[in-house]
Amino acid sequence: MIKWNTKIIYFACLIILIACTKANKVESSAISYVSYLDTITDIYAGKPVDLRFSYKGDSALHLIISNSYVQTIQKPLIKEDTLIFNVDDRIIKKAGLCEWQLVHNGISLESGIINILPLNQSHNNLESYLGPRSIVAGGHDFSMLVVVPTDIYDNPLINGSSIIVSEQFKNKRNKIALKTNDFLVHHNIFSTKQTGPFYIAAATTNGESKEMESSVTPAIPDNFNIYSKCNHNYADGNQLMEIYTSQIKDIYNNIISDGTIINFTIHSNKDQFFSASGTTINGKANVKFLHPSEAQYWKIKAYVDGASSSNTIKVNFKQSTLNYQLSYDTTQRILKIHSILSYMGQKLPDGNIVECRIINKQGNVTYETEVDTQGGTAFIDLSTHFFDADVYVAEIILMGIKKTIQIEIYDDVY
Amino acid sequence: MMMSINKNLYRVLVIISFLLVNGIIIFGISSAIAYMNTGADRSKILNIATPQQLSNSIKINWETANCIGRTIEKQTILNIEKDYLQAWQLKHNALRDNNLYGIKNYYTDSAYQNIKRTILSNKKKKVEVQSAALTHNIDVKFYSADGHIVILEDKNIELASHYINNGNTIATTQNICDYRAMLLFEDGYWRIRHLKLEKINKRDELPTLTNDSVLLKQIAEIKGLNYYPQSAPWKMFGEEFDPKIIAEDFALLKTMGLNTVRIFVQYEEFGKENVDQEKIKKLKKTLTLADNNELKVIVTLFDFYGNYDVKDIAPTLKHAHSIINSIKEEPALFAWDIKNEPDLDFETRGRANVILWLNEMIRNMQIWDTNHPITIGWSNTESAELLASHLHFVSFHDYLDPQTFNERVAKLSNSINNKAIMLQEYGYSSYSGIWNAFSSSQQKQREYYNLMQKQIDKLNLGFVFWTLYDFNHIPNSVVGYKPWHKSKQSSFGIIDKNGNRKEAFPLFDGQ
Questions:
Q1: Residue A384 has pLDDT above 80, yes or no
Q2: Quick one: pLDDT at residue A21?
């Protein structure tokens, strides 16, 4: 008995499981006849389009439409036995092909392609691009003008639309007629030999671009000359020597751009190198150097790095100080440099450097110092430094003249 | 007595409701805290997050010889390619989801308007359009001196679209289009400024294939089975891949007198669009082993695949292309089976999607391999009529009543103009247990096969039965998680789980 019960329950479960299957939905509808009433092939953008079909039967039809950008589905307006699809104005405003298909239950009944043309005759917008905006004189470099004319619906005009490009440089004007291709016209404006801004504009019969400007900048500088100017040629370590350039120009005789950096380099006969840089104004640059304090011979040259260089000029500086005296005060440990006579017999101007080295018997430098001259003399105070009591040699260099003096240092009595 | 039971019942109820209320309160507070703690993503401050991973499966050819203006640099081409494909993909996403996400980055303001307006109206009308572009052939026409403007001519874009209204597919189109586009370089993006559709051609219909007498004979001679090793059903090329076991099995098939095996290439396991070369090696090895044992192989692609989205066409094509190119020279290869039982996906994935996908596969596979026939393993004779004229031969599966098998085949044969037919899967489960009320047995399996083989002989049909072994473990992805399906599926073999030959075995021995 129990066995039977379980079997019945078991089969009941099976039956329920089997019964829980999904029934298929059946759709049926019929369309007997559809014919396309108008023949629309080419239209201008923005013109309203009605696609009309005469039909009999089921009106559950859809129109699928695609254009250059998007795809959509439209439903018809039904007037008696005519289906009217008023094509979405968003679709018909975009130039390019527009494909439509009339569909019923997944089957395409009619289809067609409308070629939507840009509205050349409307007001045109001229989107224009000019670049690069700064080009080098000489005719090799160029700015490219790109003009994309569009109609009021932002469609690029058809190929072959005319565009007049005008260029104005100084008082010269050029007009060039161009035809669009691939949405645009492009035109290269090559640089002139002269520098200066030039102006460009483009226009169609129905629209005009904004004014654009590009400038021709000087080409790379040509070689140039430098000159020096000194108040005198004594190496007094006091006066300034000015070095200046000629007006630097490119090969087309344009003054190079202001702010060009000129590097001046000096090579002395003592194998020292000095450099300074200046920027040009109106093609000229200058720098100033302090005279050396001993007789020297300078070779000076200037460069525009990587582009051009100047001639080399030579400057000779004569010894300005002829002689001086040294004396040493043993008690106060002060070394005095005095009677410094300059080239006119005058006192040496203040601020010249005196180098002093104290050398012991073994020949080692035990002390080194520098002081400035003042009022034609200089003092070196050795009391501030500790020395073993001994005999030393003091070596003094002033204005390139080296002198020595023997000094004795005693034990400090204090 | 009664009173105390009631009391206890109330107590339990009160305690349970108390716990429940507490639970709900805690859950509520924690969700509120979690919500408060999620803020704006820092990376969103910068406009750097690309909204979509670009698939590398879209074919794109570049031509730069016709470029006017400046000579285009390779790096620029790469940048344009990235942004241009992204623009297309985002537009397709927008039309599908009616959401303008990311469009503004890849279209200039005025071009954006053209898309925006229609998307808004589509959203209102509940229209969605699923599209995908499969190939781009880009000819660079112009590149400006300052490197900020480029004109592209994009020819023969293969565009597939489903138009959907209120969830119903209204139409499916396949076009080949030419576009002309102007792109501007703005803010680090190559943005579409103008786009113009210049040419539309309907995609050619698939070529109709007629019966080939050599093939007809070959198909009729097919005697084989659907093969999985006993230890690794439905994951033959995974970790469990063992050439020794396969070699032994194939040797057994040879001694039984069978001449064909049908094997399965899993889409995901093989690496989707970037096919795993290790898996290819295993597949090649299997084909070599088959050749050693004089077996021909039918390779079924896209096993366990079930998306069919138009967006998925390009990656699946790339997958198929990799597999076909790597094994089409193998001597054991007999035929390509595009997909196992795609008709079962009609309901869940949409018939239009599946058919479009199969169309694309047939079209491309016929180009990639001209030496091997192509078929689709339909799950029944009714579905097998679909696309029949475009396939080299028709394959169907049959698990229905063997008494009426004859009629089903006759009906199919009639409707497909007597095209070569192959019975690609059939069989009978000997499972006998609680889930089928002990209704089957090895005896019944033997009877089924006996009846089927007689009819097959009479019809002169090529056959590939299901299958050699009973399996211990059936993955959920095969027949779902229901135990009555799984246990049935486990016993279709002619050799049982312990390696013993079942009663039906002798029917196939010494063919």
A1: no
A2: 43
Q: CA B120, CA B387: separation in Å to the nearest integer?
A: 37
Q: Do B194 and A70 touch (CB under 8 A)?
A: no
Which of B141, B169, B197, B354 should we substitute to test contact with A (largest number of A Cβ atoms within 10 Å)? B197
Q: Are residues A43 and A88 in the same domain?
A: yes
Same domain assignment for residues A210 and A130:
yes
Contact B198 A99 (CB under 8 A): no
Q: Are residues A342 and A393 in the same domain?
A: yes
The domain spans of chain B are 59-202, 213-508
> A230 and A209 in one domain?
no
Taking an 8 Å cut-off on Cβ atoms, the answer to whether B171 and A113 are in contact is: no
Which chain B residues are Cβ-neighbours of A62 within 8 angstroms?
A: 163, 165, 170-171
Burial tier of B169 (Cβ tally within 10 Å: 0-12, 13-18, 19+): middle
Q: In this model, does residue A88 exceed pLDDT 60? A: yes
- Structural domain tally of chain A? 4
CATH level 2 (architecture), domain B59-202: Roll (3.10)
Do A6 and A21 meet the contact criterion of CB atoms below 8 Å apart? no
Flag the least confident range among A137-141, A387-391, B361-365: A387-391
CB contact under 8 A, A90 and B117: yes
| A29, pLDDT greater than 80 | no
Mean pLDDT of B446-463: 92
Residue of B360, B334, B321 whose CA lies nearest to B219: B334
Q: Does A214 touch chain B (CB under 8 A)?
A: no
Same domain membership, residue A311 and residue A231: yes
Residue A266 pLDDT class (50, 70, 90 cuts) = very high
| CB contact A301 to B (< 8 Å) | no
Predicted pLDDT of residue A14:
52
- What pLDDT is stored for residue A163 in this prediction? 93
pLDDT on residue B331: 94
Kindly identify which residue of chain A lies nearest to residue B114, measuring between CA atoms.
A69
| Same domain (yes/no): A50, A91 | yes
- The dihedral built from the CA positions of residue B256, B260, B266 and B271, taken in this order, carries a sign that is positive
Asked if B169's CB is within 8 angstroms of A106's CB, the reply is yes
Out of 3.40.630.30, 3.50.50.60, 3.20.20.80, 3.30.70.3340, the CATH code matching B213-508 is: 3.20.20.80
The answer to whether residues A177 and A241 belong to one domain is no
- Measuring CA to CA, which residue among A6, A60, A75 is closest to residue A28? A60
CATH of the domain at A189: 2.60.40.10
Confidence label for A2 from pLDDT (cuts 50, 70 and 90) = very low
Query: How far is the C-alpha of B8 from the C-alpha of B435, rounded, in Å?
Result: 41
Residue bearing tokens 């579409």? B192
A146 in a structural domain? yes
Kindly state whether residue A301 falls inside one of the protein's structural domains: yes
Residue A349: which CATH number? Answer: 2.60.40.1930
Interatomic CA distance for residues A188 and A209, integer angstroms: 17
Asked if B356 reaches chain A (Cβ–Cβ under 8 Å), the answer is: no
Q: How far apart are CA A95 and CA A120, in angstroms?
A: 11
Question: A145 to chain B, minimum CA–CA distance in Å?
Answer: 9
DSSP one-letter string for B268-316: TTTTTTS--HHHHHHHHHHHHHHHHTT-EEEEEEEET-----GGGHHHH
| B2 band by pLDDT with thresholds 50, 70 and 90 | low
Query: What residues in B contact A146, CB-CB < 8 Å?
Result: 144, 149
Q: Is residue A135 part of a domain?
A: yes
In a domain, A239, yes or no: yes
Mean pLDDT across A96-104: 91
What confidence score (pLDDT) does residue A412 get? 62
Q: Is the pLDDT of residue A376 over 80?
A: yes
Contact B151 A182 (CB under 8 A): yes
Cross-strand bridge partners of residue B395: B377, B422
pLDDT of residue A23: 40
Domain extent, residue A254, equals: 226-319
